Amino acid sequence: MKMQKIQLLTATAVSLFTATGAQATVTYPSAEIHGNGASSIINVLDKTWGCLAGPDTEIGFADGTTKNFPDHHYYPTTPTTSNPTYHCDTQSIQANLTGHYVSTGSGNGKKNWKNFSQADIGTLPASFTTAYADGHIQYAFSDSPISAGDLTTYNSTATTSPASHGAGPAIQVPFYVLPIAIAYPKVYGKKNIGGVPTPLAFNVKSTFVQHAGDGTVTGGLRMKKSTYCKILNGTITNWNDAALKADNGGQSLGDTNDPDFDTTGVPIVLIGRGDKSGTSNLFTRHLDALGNSTAGDANIAGCAGARFDTGAGGKDRLDDVAGVDNAQPAIYDKATGVLLTAGSSYTFQGGTADAKTYTVGAEAAGKFGLADGSDGVADAIGQGVPDSEVPNPGDRSVHGYLGYVGADFVLPATLGTTTPEIYAAALQVGTGSSYNMPTATNATAAFSTTYLPPQANSNGTYNPAVTANGMRNDPLAWVLPSTANDKLANPAKGYPITGTTNLLLYTCYNTYQKRAEVVALGALQFGKLGGTQTTDASGHFPVAIVNSTAKGVEPGHVGLQIGILARNGLANLPGPWKTAVWETFFAKISSGNNPGSLNLWIQDKLPTSTALIDGNSGNGEVVSNPTCTAGQGS
């Protein structure tokens, strides 16, 4: 937690500031908002909260534990007053704000949001109980879209629905562009050579190896669509398969110290999500699209008619996919950090209604081992071979894991010393001969080939006459329809497994303090929060702290991108989408075709002074939507 670091680093932090500008013009009132949902984005969300809010911010899990990822350090090449060096472990944009979030998986995020509840969080961390004492959440994240049924539940007049609590119209908007990595360990085993346990690493062709800006290897092992389809469908089960060798320039993937690779090989052990997960939804939706495409690559060998013929919407739960359920292999246990042995049992996170217990079967080729959350999948893929498994000269032991996980859990993302370093594969783009990594740039390229927001001109501004992509007052129209398999589920450009993590909000909040904090979170994401809207002693913060794609000079990481999203493999929305989301939900825009008249905005504007955000009427006070009732809402 940042609170623990401030006392140690305050003296150092003073010397880091180069800004000498005016003090803050806006101080937000004390507030706390809390939510739950997708685990795919907890790395970047934790970093964003660490920069925006005060010291008491951390990520929780449904088993009652908490985690802090390394704080974000923003190091521009040439710091200026308006774009200073900024250390989010010692500096806060608005120290009065506090944010909490519990990683439960997308399914339970959607459930709590639509039911105005927190029942499906599981076990709250002890330090979160005060924050969640109101019994419901203010926001949720999901990688999979809400359904028409979810919206019906939301709008129900039952006492448990948000509508009955005055929460106002439902809001679902894409917030992050999320590439899903096909991840593998940098080291697949060990061999005792001359009495020394020696790591065995995949031997990727040098011209295929991918590096981050600071030279860090991030992966690059290539996979055609037909190859990863066959792997994930269980028909390619060994890393020495001829298809993998062909994809990688005809070169053996075995370590030069591993003559057994080309003969015995390394069994591929698949790892997936056991909880209700939007990441699983995006992953299964993509594989279904490859097998049922009309975009020129129909019937991809290994995908068509195989186990991931799920229907265009994908599946939130991996074991709901035909051919994946039953006879599960070893399951990864986050608490112990090991794959469970056959015959043991494990209950996956979630509320009572969604908890699932499995009896672990023997490890089987082509079957998925399961793990809770993105962090569990990453830990399972990256767990190494202990020295004890190769006690004698000549002994060899291998762990050839492969799985799917959000791009902020693979290198070069900063996850902390306790998280293993795992690589990402470079996947075939479209039907061509190029291969892309799961980076912010490639994810944006994939998203940009899709479509415009509802009722939008080409720049995203509101146009009521343009209805081909739905209506702005329909929350279901804001997330790419799951039936659009030849768009984002199978893009012609960019990184092929790309989706959005969607922010679920309410229009009405029961205090002006909460409402202001919700808008501040959106404003920071979209680069709208002014550089002097900070309580930090410097009087300024970098407006682009979330979104910058510039490369910086962070010690030890020179050349890495300095914005939170790009640094960790995620991207912000393309310009037209940011415009549409902002002008519809986070501000009352009264110019042009006047989207403000739809009354979908949470707050009419950003405050330009502290006096305009104190809850007093008059004098241009920032106000809530007129459809809201004072004191009601989330």
Write the layout of secondary structure elements.
Elements: H1 2-14, E1 31-37, H2 42-52, E2 58-61, E3 66-67, E4 73-74, E5 86-87, E6 97-103, H3 106-115, E7 139-142, H4 148-154, E8 170-185, E9 187-193, E10 196-201, E11 210-211, E12 217-223, H5 225-232, H6 242-247, E13 268-273, H7 278-291, E14 332-333, E15 338-339, E16 345-347, E17 357-359, E18 368-371, H8 373-382, E19 396-398, E20 400-406, E21 422-428, E22 435-436, H9 440-447, E23 498-506, H10 512-525, H11 564-567, H12 575-586
Parallel strand pairs: 1-6, 1-7, 2-6, 12-21, 13-18, 13-20
Antiparallel strand pairs: 2-3, 4-5, 7-23, 8-20, 8-21, 8-23, 9-10, 9-19, 11-12, 14-15, 16-17, 21-22
Helix pairs in contact: 3-4
Give an account of the 3D structure.
With 634 residues, this protein is α/β, with parallel strands linked by helices. It has 2 domains: 2-10 and 28-178 and 471-613, D-Maltodextrin-Binding Protein, domain 2 (3-Layer(aba) Sandwich); 184-441, 3-Layer(aba) Sandwich (D-Maltodextrin-Binding Protein, domain 2), CATH 3.40.190. 18% of the residues lie in helices and 18% in strands. It contains 12 helices and 23 strands. The chain has helices at residues 2-14, 42-52, 106-115, 148-154, 225-232, 242-247, 278-291, 373-382, 440-447, 512-525, 564-567, 575-586; strands at 31-37, 58-61, 66-67, 73-74, 86-87, 97-103, 139-142, 170-185, 187-193, 196-201, 210-211, 217-223, 268-273, 332-333, 338-339, 345-347, 357-359, 368-371, 396-398, 400-406, 422-428, 435-436, 498-506. The strands form 5 sheets. Strands 1, 2, 3, 6, 7, 8, 11, 12, 13, 18, 20, 21, 22 and 23 form a 14-stranded mixed sheet that branches. A 3-stranded antiparallel sheet has the order 10-9-19, with no helix packed on it. A two-stranded antiparallel sheet has the order 4-5. Helix 3 runs parallel beside helix 4. The longest helix has 14 residues, at 278-291. The model is unreliable at 3-23 (pLDDT under 50).
